[in-house]
Amino acid sequence: MKELSDIGLVGLAVMGENLILNMESKGYTVTAYNRSVEKVESFLDGRAKGKKIRGAASIEELVASLEKPRKIKLMVKAGQAVDDFIEQLIPHLEPGDIIIDGGNTHYPDTNRRTDYLKEKGLLFIGTGVSGGEEGALTGPSIMPGGAPEAWPHVKDILQDISAKVDDGSPCCDWVGEGGAGHFVKMIHNGIEYGDMQLICEAYQIMKDVLGMSADEMHEVFAEWNEGDLDSYLIEITRDILAYKDDDGEPLVDKILDTAGQKGTGKWTGIVALDLGIPLTLISEAVFSRCISSRKDERVKASQVVKGPETTFDGDKKQLIKDLKDALYASKIISYAQGYLLMREAAKEFGWHLNYGGIALMWRGGCIIRSSFLGNIKDAFDKNPELENLLLDDYFRKTVEDAQAGWRRVAATALTQGIPAPAITSALSYFDGFRTARLPANLLQAQRDYFGAHTYERIDHDRGEFFHTNWTGRGGDTASTTYNA
């Protein structure tokens, strides 16, 4: 074992342990530290036994064990715990040392910490890590941002432990300044919410409209995973539907229908509202989890509030084909909205994001990994200034080809009384995006009528505002603010 470790890691929960083992397997010597020393000892006597991993019983011992510039990765609960460990580390570090936060941190905190540590001569990286327990051990997707000067010192380690795509390219590259890395991870998680909700809506239509069994649905998802929809979430859905409980019945049917969430999807929706981006599908996915959590209310309502009887006498095979089209088209909308939000955030915060590179980072290791991401990378390689994925030839044609089936699925869900908020909101966004003239002219007239908020006219230049005295009783004074 080397006299000094290449990197130290704080936090020996599942992700922390697995990342240490991943680093060691790539030839790095690692120092492990945890607030409870017993956990360090247990790790060294267990999974880390005989490996190039040393333990530290204190912050001082951790810092002293590292080669310079020191690199310390925090895998602790996001929030106050990160700030607490930073404060404990600062007195023992020297200018140029690097602290890396690998948790699910909200990007404004990473912005703040990057600036705070820069004042003290230290470098900070906030990096999203996706892939769960298995990814941490065998190769996750890693999205680092923060102080650019830190990147050359950690590049080899982070890229070596990351997942690789078929040509060997690492699913890790520098994302951008400040909180850019954690912002991109937040978008990843928002898209993850959307993908999961879309799959669940397809599942419910198959189950409640077509009356399909878990085994029959398993076969459909297995087939889908061999084509355009090939992805980690389709793959695990296939496996979940085939999994049997001890009595031989599908386990999925026995799981309570209340979904949890940790906040990243909500953050994505809030930022979209702040920046004025129509992130409709992901927002609906978050709200779907919210309504699922109100189980008792739903059960009571189901006994007194009636909707249409669910009956289907159409072509079952055609509806399954339509579901595939609806799922794929809606998925494209979700990514289009997510990329739109990243582009707007880059303008807002002065980040320089590589959109094709982000797609490459998501190609392997992470929860939303799918073959579809290669098409996104190709789109941005062809046009780095692409404003919306729907303006790329591949995605435009794919959605146009899928829309007939997509519309039939939406209509079926609505007429059969099956909630499909993600599929239908995606379709509404598509129709809104491709419509040259929306009814917002009436809306703006309403705003001017009751609040003198003014409006623009189609027969005048943009930026020229007008107010009408609609009732004859108002004055000619208009509001001093105008929000498009």
Straight-line N-to-C gap:
62 Å
Strand fraction equals 5-15%
Number of helical segments with 4 or more residues: 19
> What is the mean pLDDT?
94
Largest sheet: 8 strands, mixed
How would you write the strand order of the largest sheet?
3-2-1-4-5-6-7-8
Q: What order do the helices and strands follow?
A: EHEHEHEHEHEHEHEHHHHHHHHHHHH
Q: Helix fraction?
A: 40-55%
Poorly predicted runs: none
Explain what the structure shows.
The chain has 484 residues and is an alpha/beta fold. The protein is built from 19 helices and 8 strands. An 8-stranded mixed sheet has the order 3-2-1-4-5-6-7-8, with helices on both faces. Strand 1, helix 1 and strand 2 (30-33) form a beta-alpha-beta unit. Helix 11 (264-275) packs across helix 12. It is globular and about 80 Å long.
Question: Would you kindly provide a brief summary of this structure?
Answer:
The protein is α/β, with parallel strands linked by helices and 484 residues long.
Which terms summarize this structure?
single chain, 484 residues, alpha/beta, eight-stranded mixed β-sheet, globular
SSE diagram, text form:
Layout: E1 7-10, H1 14-25, E2 30-33, H2 37-45, E3 53-55, H3 59-64, E4 71-74, H4 80-89, E5 98-101, H5 107-119, E6 123-130, H6 132-138, E7 141-146, H7 151-161, E8 176-177, H8 180-209, H9 214-224, H10 232-242, H11 264-275, H12 280-292, H13 295-304, H14 316-349, H15 355-361, H16 372-382, H17 393-416, H18 421-433, H19 440-451
Parallel strand pairs: 1-2, 1-4, 2-3, 4-5, 5-6, 7-8
Antiparallel strand pairs: 6-7
Helix pairs in contact: 1-6, 8-11, 8-12, 8-14, 9-10, 11-12, 12-18, 14-17, 14-18, 15-16
